[in-house]
Specification:
Blueprint (H helix, E strand, L loop, with lengths): L2 H10 L2 E8 L17 E5 L4 E4 L7 E2 L10 E7 L6 E7 L6 E3 L2 E3 L4 E3 L3 E6 L2 E8 L6 E8 L5 H4 L3 E2 L4 E3 L15 E3 L2 E2 L1
Parallel strand pairs: 1-12, 3-4
Antiparallel strand pairs: 1-11, 2-12, 3-5, 5-6, 6-9, 7-8, 7-10, 10-11, 13-16, 14-15
Length: 189
């Protein structure tokens, strides 16, 4: 195997973060005009990726004056003995919380990203999925825009406030002295 074949094989094995953005006003505002949408970009694993409005500092700058100069940081790492690249997400904003699935992050707090995560800050929603690879020194990122909010796609459902009670019989109405035979929560997505 020659050098070009080895490099080609290594590139095929890079871990990739797919980050898809949604904002309710994305069709009328140019929030994503500076982002390399639809293209994979290669990044060194030892340098955090920054998302924010500071064009000079951020890897992925956003055009929105309400976004912090440095809003989020993605940090890559590996566990000992594992070929899989893992990521943490850190909130760099002093003024707004960042939500990763159901976890709220204040300034400088960070959380491990699962293989599929819903990240929310202000009115932005980001669906992040990770495709594992084996390369140790770098990874790829592909950015895109979602046409609709990603909440249903993530399968993160919140239980409804009212449980469904089953009495075991549709003929007899349940009285206050009878206990239900089975209780189940209905999930609304």
């Amino acid at each position: 195997m020659n050098v070009s074949e080895i490099l080609e094989t290594e590139e095929d094995l890079l871990t990739c973060l797919y980050i898809k953005f949604y904002h309710p006003k994305q069709h009328t505002q140019g929030f994503y005009s500076l982002l390399p949408l639809g293209n994979r970009s290669k990044h060194s694993a030892d340098t955090p990726l920054l998302l924010g409005r500071d064009v000079q500092v951020c890897t992925f700058p956003m055009v929105d004056r309400r976004v912090s100069r440095k809003q989020l940081a993605f940090h890559a790492y590996r566990m000992p003995g594992s070929p899989d690249m893992q990521f943490t997400l850190q909130n760099l904003s002093k003024t707004s919380k960042v939500y990763v699935n159901s976890s709220a992050l204040d300034f400088l707090e960070r959380v491990d990203l699962p293989s599929k995560a819903l990240v929310r800050f202000m009115q932005y929603e980001m669906l992040i999925t990770k495709e594992n690879g084996e390369a140790k020194g770098s990874f790829e990122v592909e950015l895109d825009v979602l046409p609709a909010p990603p909440l249903k796609e993530t399968f993160f459902c919140e239980p409804s406030t009212l449980p469904v009670m089953e009495t075991g019989s549709q003929l007899k109405p349940q009285t206050e002295f009878q206990s239900p035979l089975e209780t189940d929560e209905t999930y609304s997505c």
